[in-house]
Design goal:
The complex is a heterodimer. Chain A is of the alpha/beta class. Chain A contains 7 helices and 10 strands. Chain A is 36% helix and 26% strand. The two termini of chain A are 21 Å apart. Chain B folds into 2 domains: 192 residues, no CATH class; 175 residues, no CATH class. By secondary structure, chain B is an alpha+beta fold. The longest helix of chain B is centred in the C-terminal third of the chain and has 39 residues. Chain B is elongated. The chains are: A alpha/beta, B alpha+beta.
């Protein structure tokens, strides 16, 4: 199976308040269709690692290759275009735009990509929402929905451009057990049925237990 | 591009009150600019028109020379290596007429930028009526030419200016002067010149130019009567008034005429430099106040954009994570600012026009010295174009800084919480 993401010798320093090496020579790779949680105690650097891999944080040494393309060293504008096309994001907080309906929130990244016509994008967005059983809320303003519903819309939004990798930072951190289960099922289905790599930082050990492979971190190293 | 504008539009629509307040700042700024400039330029134009109603575009006359550095004695002894000192010389006898006036006029008639030439015999006089003596000025003119120059026909209060042609020894008097002497149509008035000659004239018309400095002292008689009054012959001319096709060129023309004829030639702007100066002051005032208003409006927009951006930090972070580049973020927020400016400028132009139009219909308080019925207001398209331009540039500059700041937000800090 081909690799979705490869990290080579990643090092990251925090300069404030004191010089501190958060990540120490991290190297690993993830295959397409793999669902991989990253676990570890608070402060072990797992979120930091995720933000490096997501290309949002470019202040590091080492090398990151996503989908056979080296993203290390690309300009901010190139990275933005790359994220738009290849990476789907889910965060602990949903980060939906409150002035837009659920449907429009899902459509925005695709409108930016402009690969499809507006009608096609709307069609696709509706399909994604249906997949997540959110079709009936498509025309509602995103601010009016519950936390679990908003998180599902955020996932639909992450999927709109058919990314080959989804990165999630504590996607279930604000959800009850029912919704947590739902998000887990969605992620494992995406990985196994759509062949998308899913990389998620989590505290939730239950969540991690059922995954294909778990990356466990401690003090800036991968220990498992 | 389109998606950026879509987001900008949603931001504006989701906070209509804030958008409206920002817009009103620009609206009032532009409206005041239009009102002020329309009124101020109106006043300037009124002053200029009034000024031109008694000042010719170019006035050629024989200035009294005050050069006492040369003396006849020095000329006489100049070859004899003698030092000549003349103590306290007195001015020599001067005649104030323009020599070869007929030649100059004939020459001016070939000048294509000149539309009217009026030769004048002018002198200080005393107006005597009964025991009253009033000091004033008399102009002997060819009334048809002089009327073309200053549109006297429209300034007549009683009588018509052509009466000068039909009555021998007729006089047209300024309104203020006639009132002072309590003269009315048909009355006889005596004029005494500095040389001591005296002559009686019949009042055949009273005019009012609207400037008391003129109406209180000036009268017109025919050119021939003027020459006769001063005891001079038919070729005696003291002033030549000239009207040009384009009075903006007067300064240059006047200098040319001075070089050509060696008589002092004043253009209307030089003759009325105090009016020109107050015009300039009004112009500067208008622009200073308008620009201040617009800068205040600009700061309003700057504040509101800063506030919007602080409220939208999360949105900006997620947009950047999803692949919106820095220039997209700039576009989203700058287009809001420019839209506010455009809307504000257009409504400001409309409001300004309505206010200016309203002002132009307000009656001016009645006044004997100023011939104005309504407040003077002008409507120049160039003011509106300038206002629109200013209404777009100010919000653009005001929105630029916050937008650039927004584009530099680091999404990681916000997304990590």
């Amino acid at each position: 199976m081909s690799q979705a993401l490869t990290a080579g010798k990643l090092n990251k320093y925090f300069h404030e308040p004191d010089e501190f090496r958060v990540l120490q020579d991290i190297s690993f790779s993830i295959d397409k269709g793999e669902f991989v949680p990253i676990i570890g105690k608070s402060g072990c650097g797992k979120s930091t690692l995720l933000y490096l891999l997501s290309t949002l944080d470019t202040d590091y040494t080492g090398e990151i290759i996503i989908n056979d393309e080296k993203v290390t060293g690309l300009s901010q504008n190139e990275l933005a275009a790359f994220r738009n096309e290849h990476i789907g994001f889910v965060f602990q907080f949903h980060f939906l735009l409150p002035e837009f309906t659920a449907l429009e929130n899902v459509m925005l990244p695709a409108l930016k990509l402009a690969r499809w016509s507006k009608d096609e994008i709307e069609q696709r967005a509706l399909e994604k929402l249906d997949q997540l059983q959110m079709g009936q809320y498509a025309r509602k303003l995103s601010g009016k929905l519950s936390g679990g519903q908003q998180q599902r819309i955020a996932i639909a939004r992450a999927l709109i451009n058919d990314p080959m990798i989804i990165m999630a930072d504590e996607p279930t951190g604000n959800l009850d057990s029912g919704n947590t289960k739902l998000v887990f099922d969605i992620f494992s289905k995406l990985a196994h049925e759509k062949n998308i790599a899913v990389l998620t930082v989590t505290h939730d050990l239950d969540f991690a237990k059922h995954a294909d492979r778990v990356i466990e971190m401690m003090d800036g190293h991968i220990i498992n | 591009m389109l998606v950026d504008l879509l987001i900008a539009q949603r931001h504006l629509m989701s906070n209509k009150k804030q958008t409206l307040v920002a817009m009103l700042g620009v609206t009032f700024g532009i409206a005041m600019f239009i009102l002020m400039i329309s009124f101020m330029i109106g006043v300037n134009q009124f002053m200029e028109d009034t000024m031109l109603s008694f000042t010719p575009d170019i006035h050629i006359y024989n200035d009294i020379k005050t050069d006492y550095s040369r003396s006849v004695a020095a000329d006489y002894f100049k070859d004899r290596h003698t030092l000549v000192v003349v103590k306290h010389p007195k001015p020599k006898q001067v005649s104030l007429n323009i020599k070869n006036a007929a030649g100059i006029i004939a020459d001016l008639e070939h000048n294509r930028s000149v539309t009217a030439i009026s030769p004048v015999v002018g002198s200080q006089v005393f107006y005597n009526y009964g025991p009253v003596q009033v000091n004033g000025y008399i102009n002997g003119v060819n009334i048809a030419e002089e009327s073309r120059m200053f549109d006297l026909a429209a300034k007549m209060v009683t009588g018509v200016s052509e009466n000068l042609l039909t009555t021998s020894k007729g006089i047209l008097m300024g309104k203020g002067l006639a009132d002072k002497l309590n003269l009315s149509m048909g009355d006889m008035v005596s004029l005494a010149t500095p040389n001591g000659t005296m002559m009686r004239f019949r009042v055949v018309g009273i005019f009012r130019i609207g400037i008391s400095a003129v109406d209180n002292v000036r009268s017109y008689i025919s050119l021939a009567s003027g020459q006769q009054l001063l005891g001079q012959d038919k070729s005696y001319i003291t002033d030549i008034n000239i009207k040009l096709k384009d009075n903006a060129l007067a300064a240059g023309e006047a200098a040319g005429l001075f070089r050509k004829y060696h008589y002092k030639a004043d253009d209307w702007e030089t003759a009325n430099s105090s009016v020109s100066a107050s015009n300039l002051v009004r112009d500067v005032l208008t622009y200073v106040v308008s620009i201040t208003l617009l800068i205040v409006a600009g700061f309003g927009i700057y504040n509101i954009m800063n506030m919007t951006i602080s409220n939208k930090m999360k949105d900006i972070a997620i947009l950047k994570a999803q692949g919106f580049a820095g220039k997209d973020i700039v576009q989203i927020f700058l287009s809001q600012s420019v839209f506010i400016g455009l809307l504000g400028a257009l409504s400001g132009l409309l409001l300004g026009f309505l206010l200016a139009y309203g002002l132009s219909k307000v009656p001016f308080p009645h006044n004997d010295y100023v011939a104005l019925n309504f407040f003077p207001v002008v409507f120049f398209p160039s003011h509106y174009i300038f206002g629109l331009l200013f209404g777009l540039i100010t919000p653009f500059l005001a929105g630029l800084m916050p937008s650039l700041k927004a584009s530099k937000i680091d999404p990681v800090i916000i997304l990590r919480g």
